[in-house]
Amino acid sequence: MVAVVPTAARSGASAPVAQRSSKTGYLLLFPGMAWLGVFFAIPFVTLFMTSLQAPVAGSPGKYQFGLEFGNYASAMAEYWPLFLRSFLYAGIATLLALAIAYPLAYFIAFRAGQWRSLMLVLVIAPSFASFLLRTYAWKTILADEGIITSTLNSLHLLPEGRILNTGIAVVAGLTYNFLPFMILPLYAALEKIDPRLMEAAGDLYASPQTAFRKVTWPLSMPGIVAGTLLTFIPASGDYINAALLGSTGNRMIGNAIQINFIQFRDYPTASALSFVLMAAILVLVFTYIRRAGTEDLV
Amino acid sequence: MTTKRPEAIAAIAGTMRSSVSRRRLLQAAGIGSAAMVAAACGTGGDSEASGEAASAEDMSDTDKTLNWSNWPLYIDVDEDSGVRPTLEAFQSESGVAVTYTEDINDNNEFYAKVRTQLEQGQDIGRDLVVLTDWMAALWIQNGFAQKLDKSIMPNAGNIIPRLKSVSFDPNREYTLPWQSGIAGFGFNKSAYADATGNDKLVTLDQLFDPAIKGRVTLLTEMRDTMGVLLASLGYDPANFTDDEFSSAIELLTNQVDSGQVRQVTGNDYIAALESGDVIGVIGWSGDILALGEDFGFEIPESGGTLWTDNMEIPALAQHKKNAELAMNYYYDPEVAAEVAAYVNYICPVEGAQEAMEALDPELASDEFIFPTQALLDQTFIFMELTVEQNDKYEREFQKTIGN
Q1: pTM higher than 0.95
Q2: Which chain A residues contact residue B276 at CB under 8 A?
Q3: Which of A125, A151, B10, B71 has its CA 20 to 30 A from that of B153?
Q4: What b/e readout covers B325-339, taking b as 16+ CB neighbours within 10 angstroms?
């Protein structure tokens, strides 16, 4: 972003204009930077410092400035299984969301015609209700005596005899809650594709499958990457779904962070966990973007 | 528990359940705030000194207001108009305008919200708060609670004998009970009978009967769940050792690992009982009794946890006297009876039972509101823990239940 400013300055014809536009550039940048500084950079640094705090000897529950990198080791030793579970659940939810969202976004972009706007509104509409309420609704949908569970049970498809309070319910909740974040970028990407490209593929004797594989899918890649990231990242850190729809064996890392902050008031451990979560997500995301080969697109 | 409960109270119960979502929401917000707290002050706490709470200049006489924080649905409300009759009466009688906020949903969450201000010696903007025993005790230990001026609270003497003296406040110098309750067994009568052939759930063995595997929930409140477990193992929850606690944890671990325990929850268990997902629970007396005839509440044979939510005045509260006037008012037996008729929990005020005779004779003989000595003998008050013990036990417990 910073590079933009000198470029703009250089392109100016005369010196006074250049000076003015450079100032304008910085001024325009200011609100965003200030926002980032106050709400991201400062909390980020203090969170990091909190994660290194040491307990005050003799007064439990109190912490002071320190360089306790051991906080990370002990937090990881205790909670690594929850990290794995979080990424597993978030990963499955992301794939499911992609599988559900792609056909839907494709339909809205190419086939919905005059219903397009209405369908987009319908995709977003559930978000008007609170995240929490929607998750609560799933407790009713998946209830033991509910229609879904009893049907599946009569077919003997459920090993535990229930869906609610199992890992399945947590993944289902995650998938549902973050689905709009998958649909919208996919739609945006698909909608931009010129239909004539697909026609051209057909003219060049590509079967519909080949045309999809060679034209549509690659061109929708930015949407896929954006959608999977927008789904996977919040899903990894989510704790509401695990708390409401899961059981004792389905807690995710967000639950551990919550319990450390609120229940144990162990701010260093909670901060360390938050940091590891951030770092792990960053690494996963970078690896993913590289493998997806879309550095230019994001 | 039949009178005047049916529809209206079922509706209230419904709202109470939905307050669960509010509770969760607040917890979510709590995380945000805790993170901010941690981030903003690096958990500070250096300026905090144990001992006597600081008091501010009392503005009560010039500024006739009172800021009161309490738990949701914990005071009488007139269903039709939405006003709180006893609170209205207090306001017109005393001339004090009360801002009554139902913003305490969880002891830890509330503490996380106000802790930094308390530690840095700032007014938390509340003159009266209602906290469960162990949290009330923590506030007294840390010097966050002000001593009450009993001279303007003649009614304070009406406290029932069982609650007159507690370990954290032997002479009730800092606290007065708001309501008490019992953690014990709740069950869906017909589903429980169908599954097990028993008509009452009174022992832990019955709760952990494989016939109701996966249909059982426990409470996240460590003292309530572990108290019942400790007692059922033959230990004294009011006085136990580390080893005894460990054996109770082992028992819990087995039941969690085997899948007997479906979930460990806060208020959520009520909705699960109502929907039929859950058959037997460790839950709170007032909540389960409010569910009506189809559900039973029993104090475990080996004993249930008796807990109390206490009124306390935070350090530096600006309207201490007004808070004391309100406490005094709610210790008037007639007023206490009105509140008790609504909330279903144990009324801590002597004489309220007689007052209830006039209001609703059936409730007056309700032993979960006005417990007999025999019933109280079935309960115990959980051992007072040091901060270190609390930390250790809380962690062991949370780890066992998957956190």
Answers
A1: no
A2: 143-145
A3: B71
A4: bbbbbbbbbbbbbbb
